[in-house]
């Protein structure tokens, strides 16, 4: 018998502020929430605001891990 939910892949755990922000963002933007969070992270990176970039990266990661990985690649390459 499996005791974990079927969709529990043991993926990353999110801290409460990021998870709550992601849920609020989804409520506001619907299916476009991850794309908007991605755009917010890019704008922060372009402005050199690393703290805001990190925040939006984690919000994006909570909404769409694949999209967030593209942000990780951008950060690794020094945008």
Describe this structure in words.
- The protein has one domain.
- It is mainly alpha-helical.
- The protein has helices spanning 16-29, 33-46, 50-63, 65-76.
- It has 4 helices and no strands.
Characteristics of this structure?
mainly alpha, 79 residues
Report the strand count: 0
Whole-number radius of gyration?
14 Å
Structural category = mainly alpha
Query: How do the SSEs run, as a string of H and E?
Result: HHHH
Helicity level: 55-70%
- Average of pLDDT: 84
Content of β-strand = under 5%
Choose one word for the global shape. globular
Domain module tally: 1
Please tally the helical runs, counting DSSP H or I stretches of 4 or more residues: 4
Spatial separation of the terminal alpha carbons: 47 Å
Provide the fold topology:
Elements (H helix, E strand, L loop, with lengths): L15 H14 L3 H14 L3 H14 L1 H12 L3
Helix pairs in contact: 1-2, 1-3, 2-3, 2-4, 3-4
Short description:
This protein has 79 residues and is mainly alpha-helical. It is 68% helix and 0% strand.
């Amino acid at each position: 018998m499996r005791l974990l939910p079927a969709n529990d892949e043991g993926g990353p755990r999110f801290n409460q502020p990021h998870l709550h922000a992601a849920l609020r963002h989804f409520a506001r933007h619907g299916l476009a929430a991850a794309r908007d969070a991605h755009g917010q992270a890019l704008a922060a990176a372009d402005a050199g605001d690393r703290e805001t970039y990190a925040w939006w990266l984690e919000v994006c990661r909570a909404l769409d891990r694949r999209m967030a990985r593209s942000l990780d690649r951008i950060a690794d390459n020094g945008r």
